[in-house]
What does this fold into?
Amino acid sequence: MRTNIFSFIVIALLSASQVFGQICWTKSNKPLSKEAQERYDYLYANPSVISIELINLDINELYTAKSMNINTNEQLVRVNKLKTNVRDNINNFDVVFADSENEVLLSVLGKDIQGNIHSPSASYSIQTLADGEYALLKVDADAMKEDVNDIIDEYEKNHTEELLSGGGILPPSPVAVTIKVIVAFTTAAANAVSNTTNYVNCRLLEMNQSLSNSSLSHITILSAYVYTTSYTAVNFTTDLNRFYGNNDGCMDDIHTKRLTYGGDVCVLMTTSTDLCGKAKAIAADENTAFCAVSPNIGCEMKYTFSHEIGHLVGCRHDTYVDNTSTPYAYGHGYVYLGSSSASSWRTMMAYDNKCTAAGYNCARINYWSYPNATYNGIAMGTTSTNNNRRVWYNRAQSVAGFAEKLLAGSVTPVLLNNRPKLSIQYRNNVLSININEITEELTLTIYDIWGNQIKTINLQHQNENIQLDNLQNGLYIATTKYNSQLFVVK
It folds into this structure.
């Protein structure tokens, strides 16, 4: 039965100098603003939401807390903070509290707070209703449908493993890898969340934590750019094909934005109600690294954002629903059947079908299958069949180079009598622009890899050399447009 208030969960955050700690969010009896009431009603209408409690939340205490007490089903569990990641300042950070079974991931951007609480007995979501007004939701993740056919194009190409040598033994010192993601929201999807930027922050927090949980902390997923498109959703297959397609009149600007902001992977957030998510391909290349995901809270609880990107990297479902051995025979998710639903679980790419057939319900945990790691003492995979971690290890560096591949192929000069009318080159901190018989003034814009505009330069001469010594070391994108053609240089 759905209820508006539930009292069986009490959460307290403990700062370093406190024994029992200040309760940092408590039940709120304040009347909601009109904006907050509208969002409350929207969330309560979601079939995934079992109950909602209005709460007061102390952001400063959340920032300084060293541990968290979670009381579910009259059992008190203290969960220590693993990390606080400050993106810019105290108003832009995320926190992770976790132990072997419980995980709390929260992202803060100004007064917007979003995050999820996963425990063996229940799942909860913290949502911002309006400026400074918050709610704690109990969520039934199984209310949202998962479709085992969530890939449009099956694997067709003959990938060679980017890593293997000496029988597949992993090198002792992995290279740091950064994969950049561009996320587009349909207008309806943007209206479904309290803040699109912080929503993406929260999904990337979950994904990076899953990689860290699976001994892949050398891989980092970053946001390249977040924006809203006016496209109206139809269904996942149509939406994703239109997002991926070019020159079809639907969301074509993703391809320009991908070049401008350097996105390796592209994600469409859409409110199509038929699925939680869909990927364009298994083991995608730079041209097919597209997926679509629902912002529904029930889908959040299944880590759908991470799951669909996992497909693009090359990971498959568990063998109960998918025994395909390409591109990697070992690249499947893993399901563990215990003696009950509470003791059963499935890793990031696995589905609930095997559990359902046994009469259980298996929660998805924030780990990739990996035989060398355990969950509650049980190995989370097998060497020959269930090792999604190995897929990530093999493929991450290639995926992180998708944007660079696209950029390398995008700098095609406009020709006049076989001479380039416009060309851009970068060497030794100098950006050289060569202009031949172009009379109109052009503007050159330089962005960092997060899409922040760093510098704008008006090009008024035939040839210009621009010194960039004052920029910090890093990756930058320079763009200009002439005759409707975009010129990009990294």
